[in-house]
Amino acid sequence: MKDARDQQGADGRQGSEQAAVPDPAMTEGAPPAAAVFACAACGAALTGPLRPLAAVPEAPYHPWWEAEEMGPSPATVPSGCYAIETEPYGPPLVVADAPGSVMPRHGTRYNIDGQPLVSQGPRGNIVVNPDDSRGLTTRHSSAACCGATPDGGLNQACACGTLVATLSSDCCLPYELHLSPDHVRVLPSHPPSPDLTA
């Protein structure tokens, strides 16, 4: 499968776009500003305004095997918020020296030879509540019983066709949407228009 990074359309980025993650130094001493994340290729908003969290929360405990109906777990990130994933997430999965979580908030994983695996995927993903996303469609998803997994990498496409995010929504996984910092940007914030009728 062709690397999704080839589809990012970097040459079409507008000069007014900002980096994917707001610079905390710009707002030091001020309350954190909300950010709207948009597709870097076409500029379409992919979220509404989201407030930053200091870290990705722990995934809520959810005994999915006892659920009356199969479906996603409770979301890791509260609605209206985002957090930056500091650890590797997604493929490639490589053999580790010792067993551990294959990626943040996921359990252990082993290859066919019984060797433990860990992610060597990208760092810096923007983790949001999947219910806060706009206009995304599933392009592909790795095999799972009732939802998407991050094993195959970027699996959510903007309306323009650019792969921009990875959804984790299978019943036994944390319910999260990871926006790729290489494929999304923060929409520039504009000051309120002056009231000309006053």
Helix-strand makeup class: mainly beta
- Proportion of helical residues: under 10%
> Main sheet, how many strands, which sense, barrel?
7 strands, mixed
Kindly state the number of beta strands: 11
Shape estimate? globular
- Looking across the biggest beta sheet, what order are the strands in? 2-3-6-10-9-8-7
Approximately how much beta-strand content do the residues carry?
15-25%
The helix/strand series, from N terminus to C terminus, equals EEEEEEEEEEE
Global Rg: 18 Å
The residue-averaged pLDDT reads: 82
> Distance N terminus to C terminus?
58 Å
Q: Number of helix segments?
A: 0
3D architecture notes:
There is one protein chain. This protein is an all-beta fold and 198 residues long. It contains no helices and eleven strands. The protein has strands spanning 37-39, 51-52, 81-84, 93-95, 117-119, 126-128, 137-138, 156-157, 163-168, 176-179, 184-186. Strands 2-3-6-10-9-8-7 form a seven-stranded mixed sheet, with no helix packed on it. The protein is globular and about 50 Å long. Residues 1-17 and 24-29 have low confidence and may be disordered.
Tag the structure with descriptive keywords:
198 residues, mainly beta, seven-stranded mixed beta sheet, two-stranded antiparallel ribbon, globular, disordered N terminus
Summarize the structure.
This protein has 198 residues and is mainly beta.
What is the element layout, followed by pairings?
Elements: E1 37-39, E2 51-52, E3 81-84, E4 93-95, E5 117-119, E6 126-128, E7 137-138, E8 156-157, E9 163-168, E10 176-179, E11 184-186
